[in-house]
């Protein structure tokens, strides 16, 4: 009977030692709720900073803001209205950086598609190309082939001239 007592005594000793640990685990508070979402940022500055910078009187600051928003990408979807306004900027570089940023934001920039369609018919080749690529990105399509003519708006491809 002594071996039984030892096993029983060992068991009770284990229970007595584990009891404080188990009660501490049971009394542990649940983890705190998650903190509010942190705003996406670039270069240590949040999207809201870059949105304000798009309204700067300095063209270089506006270009930098649009470029920063492009680098943030889809998390910068709150910048879409400001980028749409920037498409009307007098500075070409502000417009082209804003077009690129809208493309990088992707489907969340769908509100910009009507004005991007107009810009895809712009006289400037760079603006046309960026606007077409942005529209494709927003719609989830691959960008248009740079070597092929864009026939998505009903344009007919031009015939190549033969060298004489």
Can you walk through the features of this model?
The protein is elongated and about 100 Å long. Helix 5 (92-105) packs parallel to helix 7 (125-138) and helix 6 packs antiparallel against helix 7 (125-138). The chain is mainly alpha-helical and 164 residues long. The chain has helices spanning 2-27, 47-53, 59-72, 80-86, 92-105, 113-119, 125-138; strands at 41-42, 45-46. Strand 1 (41-42) and strand 2 form a beta hairpin. The model has no long low-confidence stretch (mean pLDDT 81). Strands 1-2 form a two-stranded antiparallel sheet.
Brief synopsis:
The chain is mainly alpha-helical and 164 residues long.
Specify Rg, calculated over alpha carbons. 30 Å
Through-space gap between termini: 114 Å
Order of helices and strands: HEEHHHHHH
* Helical content class: 40-55%
Q: Tell me the number of strands.
A: 2
Mean pLDDT: 81
Query: Low-confidence spans: pLDDT under 50, at least 5 residues?
Result: none
Biggest pleated sheet: 2 strands, antiparallel
Strand pairing plus helix content: what structural class? mainly alpha
Instruction: Specify the number of helices.
Output: 7
Order of strands, widest sheet: 1-2
Shape: elongated
Strand content: under 5%
């Amino acid at each position: 009977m002594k071996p039984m007592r030892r096993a029983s005594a060992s068991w009770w000793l284990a229970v007595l030692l584990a009891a404080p640990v188990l009660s501490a685990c049971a009394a542990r508070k649940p983890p705190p709720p998650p903190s509010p979402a942190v705003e996406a940022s670039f270069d240590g500055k949040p999207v809201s900073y870059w949105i304000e910078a798009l309204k700067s009187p300095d063209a270089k600051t506006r270009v930098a803001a649009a470029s920063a928003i492009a680098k943030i990408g889809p998390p910068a979807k709150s910048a879409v209205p400001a980028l749409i306004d920037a498409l009307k900027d007098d500075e070409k570089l502000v417009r082209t950086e804003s077009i690129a940023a809208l493309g990088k934001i992707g489907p969340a920039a769908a509100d910009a598609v009507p004005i991007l369609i107009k810009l895809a018919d712009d006289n400037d080749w760079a603006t046309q190309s960026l606007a077409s690529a942005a529209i494709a990105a927003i719609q989830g399509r691959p960008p248009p082939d740079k070597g092929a003519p864009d026939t998505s708006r009903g344009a007919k491809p031009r015939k190549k001239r033969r060298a004489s």
